[in-house]
Amino acid sequence: MPLPLANRLSLVAFSALLALSLNASADRDLNAEIVIDEGSGGAAGEGADIIIDDGGGEAGDVEISIDAGDQGTDITIDTGPGTDAAADLAATDDAQDDVEIGLDKARLEIGHFPDSGSESETSIYGHLSVSANWQPTPNWELQLAARADAYDEDDVNSFTTARGDYGDSFVRYRGDGFRLTLGTQTVVWGRMDGLPIADRVSTVDLRRFVLDELEDSRLSNPMLRLEAPVAGGQIDLVWLYDFRAAELPPKDSVWYPANLTTGRLLGISPDDVPPAAILGSKFDEDEPDGDGGFGARYTRTHSFADIGVTVARTRQSTPYFRLAAPGRFEAEHPRSWSMGADAALDAMGATWRLELLYASDNPVTRSDLRYTTTPSMQWGAGVEFHPGDGDARVIVQLIGTNLVGAPDILDRKEIYSVNGEVVVPFDRERWRAKVNYYFGLDDKDVFMNPELSFLEFEPHEFYVSGYYFDGGDRTFGGFHEDHSSINVGWRTKF
Question: What's the whole-number mean pLDDT along residues 303-310?
């Protein structure tokens, strides 16, 4: 059934706000002529005039006069007639305290699900993020940021939703070599590209599942953070004083971790948990109260490699739904100790990455449907190189997860995959072709994301992309095999 007209118009109105950012980059004549006039004789003390002519007439010219007199140096900036921006700047050490307010990101994307088995036929996504930054002194910094996201899907399960949220909003103090930050922040640890294994303090945004790049799939969460030099390296200490769970899509979305139309649960075979046990069930998403834990990461650059060591005791932001009672599933966010090491080195014309991490408590479901946790080892190895030393970039990574001493469970005990990215700019970098890929090795699990972008009007990008899923019953590719899509969109970042 089509959505009510008012709902769809609300999303169109949000999209119109995104279009406003295009006005910020209206056509301008960027050619400029710089003329330096040293005066009649160029003698010391007589000063010099620097005139920047932008080709737009006297009203657009900027004249900078430098007078090195006996009492010091005066710098005068004159933007010409018709403006009030002329300023007389004395050569002092006074701090600047301007407030910078701007649009950070904007995006609009429309998608189509061609598979007849999909619960949705079309999707619309819009995003807008803004921030204001103020640095009254060299030591202090204040930032406020906000974002708005809108989602629409239309077919069997139709919905439209929009939500405002905070971004990185904090107070920061810079001391002698250290930074102390209090507020909401986005911190991603780890070494592997796109799938960092030591990523134990960030909050995941699951509202679009795996459709977004890493930086767009992480949310700001409350924390106290200290960054300081230690023993020739850098220490990063984080306390998540208020736990924030991952953001989930609406239950009617194709990206929800339980398909309430077909009766399937992500990561579990329908042969083990029959659809009848899922259909009509209630999924409780309540997150636990209290803090999210703490973590420490030490990094140092050696002559042979960049190394990192991570120790953390944090809650998992991604929920794991356990069967609490017939017809009711509850979200679990177990605390887990994580200890790991990673390295990156340049050799043979390529960048090589290694990562290894032990996690003490990974949520699983026993064969009798009881919930428990078990330790795991997660590891990864990858290489990034530029074929022919050109602009193209290729990333290939092997990543594995092995549960340690796990009982008889419904979840997968071993997961091995090859993933990465291929990026090829062409036509004087006016176009970019890109493919993100993920292939399961122990069980069929396929995700392909080809994309073609037009970059002529930077920072604006216009793109067409595809998302293809396929796989076994317990893989995310198999769970979403009916949700392959073709998307077109526009995005910009300032």
Answer: 96
